[in-house]
């Protein structure tokens, strides 16, 4: 499925006219989920939520404001996603969803305040998207006046890197933005965020769009048998350093990871193809030299060819055994599924 998510610090939801303006933006962009920060409402009501959308099939969760400070509201169209669980943090609320169309499970976190590592520690290990007002900028260039980099900015950047989050390019982005894990981005062929006009509030609404959902495509899987190929590590280094991407460090990492996965899929198809068919062809070579040897003695060159044929067959048997051992869930958990996060941890020391 394609997805549209809106994030907006509206500076309060108590004004009826302001709610109508928010409703017009939600309706115009046909968003599937919208996250409102700084609601300034101690208790969110069904009536206020309904006034933000003309749709009938709306569900919501809220982090109430403390006095007139803060507050986060997440609303979504139940025809697009269903909620499985939710959890409140000090400055955030997180919802675990299952997409109605494809059954994909993922987590969205709405934030008004600083991002911390604990946000991830208390959440589920699912593809993760965050949106909101983080109360700090990330880069010096995002300042209206080019002042020095602060300790808060450094800490924010470090947490993004520690959590392995992708920071999408955004023209004119300041305190408001979306972040996501590579596994969330992998659900779509393209992901982008953009700033919308602001009919109310001094904050711009930010729209995140995930397009070209990867329906039916096989997920990336690191095959342990690749490590048995001579020169595989050098291939990885060459492919990685040959990918040139511009942008923030987290964005470059995410894009290069996605490109590398596609290269590995093609390489796997070209080099390994069908394991059973390759094994069968190798066995035919062994049988051929056995039949030749039964009719006459083999020359030294032919004996070497027979030896190569047997070694080739043994290679494909080992490859196939490694592949099927990895597909066993018990062995998979013991030997490690090098997908996305764990694949990155394996890859980084190699590519430097």
From TrEMBL:
Record SUPFAM superfamilies: DNase I-like
MF terms in GO: catalytic activity
Membrane spanning residue stretches: none
Domain Endonuclease/exonuclease/phosphatase intervals: 6-203
PANTHER family the UniProt entry points to: BNAC02G09200D PROTEIN, ENDONUCLEASE_EXONUCLEASE_PHOSPHATASE DOMAIN-CONTAINING PROTEIN
Protein name per its UniProtKB record: Endonuclease/exonuclease/phosphatase domain-containing protein
Source organism: Vitis rotundifolia
């Amino acid at each position: 499925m394609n997805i549209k998510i809106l994030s907006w610090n509206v500076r309060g939801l108590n004004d009826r006219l302001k709610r109508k303006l928010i409703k017009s933006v939600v309706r115009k962009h046909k968003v599937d989920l919208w996250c409102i920060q700084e609601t300034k409402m101690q208790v969110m009501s069904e009536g206020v939520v309904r006034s933000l959308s003309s749709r009938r099939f709306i569900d919501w969760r809220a982090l109430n404001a403390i006095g007139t400070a803060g507050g986060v509201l997440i609303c979504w169209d139940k025809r697009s996603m269903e909620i499985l669980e939710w959890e409140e943090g000090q400055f955030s609320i997180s919802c675990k969803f299952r997409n109605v169309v494809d059954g994909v499970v993922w987590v969205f976190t709405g934030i008004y305040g600083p991002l911390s590592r604990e946000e991830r520690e208390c959440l589920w290990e699912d593809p993760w998207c965050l949106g909101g007002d983080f109360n700090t900028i990330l880069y010096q260039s995002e300042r209206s006046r080019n002042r020095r980099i602060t300790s808060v900015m450094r800490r924010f950047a470090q947490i993004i890197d520690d959590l392995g989050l992708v920071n999408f390019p955004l023209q004119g982005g300041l305190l408001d933005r979306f972040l996501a894990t590579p596994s969330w981005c992998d659900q779509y062929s393209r992901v982008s965020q953009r700033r919308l006009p602001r009919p109310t509030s001094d904050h711009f609404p930010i729209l995140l769009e995930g397009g070209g959902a990867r329906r039916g495509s096989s997920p990336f899987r690191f095959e342990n048998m690749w490590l048995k190929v001579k020169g595989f590590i050098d291939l990885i280094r060459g492919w990685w350093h040959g990918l040139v991407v511009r942008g923030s460090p987290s964005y470059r990492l995410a894009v290069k990871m996605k490109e590398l996965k596609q290269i590995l899929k093609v390489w796997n198809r070209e080099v390994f193809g069908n394991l059973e068919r390759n094994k069968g062809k190798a066995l035919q070579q062994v049988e051929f030299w056995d039949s030749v040897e039964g009719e006459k003695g083999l020359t030294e060159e032919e004996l070497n060819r027979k030896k190569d044929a047997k070694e080739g067959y043994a290679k494909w048997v080992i490859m196939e055994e490694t592949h099927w051992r990895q597909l066993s869930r018990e062995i998979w958990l013991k030997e490690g599924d090098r997908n996305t996060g764990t694949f990155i941890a394996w890859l980084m020391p190699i590519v430097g």
